[in-house]
ArsC family reductase (Nemorincola caseinilytica), 127 residues
Amino acid sequence: MAQVCYSIFAGMINIYGIKNCDVVQKALKWLDAHKVPYTFHNYKETGLDKALLEQWLKHIAVDKLVNTRSTTFRELGEEEKAGWNDKNKAIALMMQHTSVVKRPVWDLGNGNYLLGWDEQALTKALL
């Protein structure tokens, strides 16, 4: 079987997540296997800034980006959870508790973003 190489991208894919997340590890292995160039941003180590989160929220709905099913979110106090679906409160929450961000976040360039792991959507976006 021929190895697929996605060379249509002039730039590099940016993928954001947490290194020890199973879904992120799966995504990185997939990219490596398909020889897709990427830059990985571990936001557990480097954090997230307001400008980046605002950019994501232009393309991804806040109720999709904030993972309310995560252990971290469920363990927050009611006061911290209050208003999580308000853009500004969500940004503050994600900056303080990066583990509540659904992952991975894929920046494919030119305002194209994907969220989570969907091999079919990723393959379609890269072809």
User: Anything to note?
Assistant: The longest helix spans residues 22-33. The beta strands are 13-17, 38-42, 105-109, 112-115. The chain has one domain: 13-21+35-126.
